[in-house]
Amino acid sequence: MKKRICSIFLCAVLACTMISGCAKEKEETKEPEGAASAEEGDAEEVVDMPSLADVDVEKCVTLPEYKGITVEKTVTPVTEEDVDTTITYSLSYSPMELTDESAKVEEGDTVNIDYVGKVDGKEFDGGSAEDTDLMIGSGQFIDGFESGLVGHIKGDTVELNLTFPEDYSEELSGKDVVFTVTINAIKRPLTEITEEWVQENSDCKTIEEYRESIRKDLEDYNNNLAEENLQTQAWQQVVESATINEYPEELMEYGKSVFEDQVTSNAQASNQTLEEYLKAQDTTQEEYDEQKEEYGKNIVSQMLVMKAIADAENYTEEDEAYQEILDAYLSQYGMEKEEFYKENGEQNVYQSIMLQRVCQLIMEEANIQEVQAES
């Protein structure tokens, strides 16, 4: 079977151009020196969805019955194996400090270190830090840094003579560097959970109490996932039941451009041209064009169905419900309406809110049957 370059997710397709990451707060991250940091690119220009105001929606789409549809909510039960797997994962990312003073650093350990980096005998900006945790084998530091600590014990001071990669920063590319590293502590993941670990890494006091809290979290997660899938299923059912009589050219061009942008982004992430990427995906130009056409129709179908239902329900931007959603966004991101539209695109905001209202209506009117999935 030929690989599909981009999966088409009904419901999620419009979401990709919905309000996402608008005015995201940049998290303060402590990036260890020795790991090449990505260059900050220029801010991307917001691509606004085309307006549906001048589209004869009634001519383009024939709506199905969208009220009272039957959908299944499938909830996956949580097993003991699920709980065990989650605990094993948690143990691996919350290691315990070793008390054995003779214990040596191994691959997979997390070490707490102080380090000073020097080039030509001089410290450089960002090349030194104290009280830094580093997982050995994570690849956060340049080659030779992490492996150079393997076999040493707590309290050792290690001198690492290394070379920055050629594709590093302009100031340091290809230069020799000496890191003087002191190992303050060695932490290692447990193979079995202990009450000491539980008390140090959770609000629970016993292993059994912790297992029950994990089970509850997993059950909540599975239920939330089932709710999300339920809405996707309901929206998909309505869209697929609609009859699209005409695909407006402007909307199709927009839909296909979304597909092109996604594929191009994937190619760039792989350091490939589009042609190289298609070849690597075992996809011909003809297949690519077919997928782009299908993807475009998928987006247009959703835009038309969403607008047709909104019109049928007499939803407008002046509605109280619309304003409540918009105000919630403005409050969440701390913006005035004009700034918010500028950051996200006015049509992106409008169609995002309308899609939410339409999906909410469909769900409120749907007949939901809950079934238990196999674990």
TL;DR?
With 375 residues, the protein is of the alpha+beta class. The chain has helices at 12-15, 57-60, 80-93, 195-201, 207-241, 249-269, 274-280, 285-312, 320-333, 337-344, 346-365, and strands at residues 61-62, 70-75, 96-97, 110-119, 122-135, 157-163, 176-188, 243-244, 367-372. The chain contains eleven helices and nine strands.
Question: Please, could you describe this protein's structure?
Answer:
- The chain is of the alpha+beta class.
- It folds into two domains: 201 residues, Trigger factor, domain 2 (Orthogonal Bundle), CATH 1.10.3120; 94 residues, Roll (Chitinase A, domain 3), CATH 3.10.50.
- Helices cover 43% and strands 17% of the residues.
- The protein contains eleven helices and nine strands.
- The strands form three sheets. Strands 3, 4, 5, 6 and 7 form a five-stranded antiparallel β-sheet that branches. Strands 1-8 form a two-stranded antiparallel ribbon. It has a two-stranded parallel sheet with strand order 2-9.
- A hairpin with a 2-residue loop joins strand 4 and strand 5.
- Helix 3 crosses helix 5, helix 6 crosses helix 8 and helix 9 crosses helix 11.
- The longest helix is centred in the middle third of the chain and has 35 residues.
- The two termini are 28 Å apart.
- The N terminus is likely disordered.
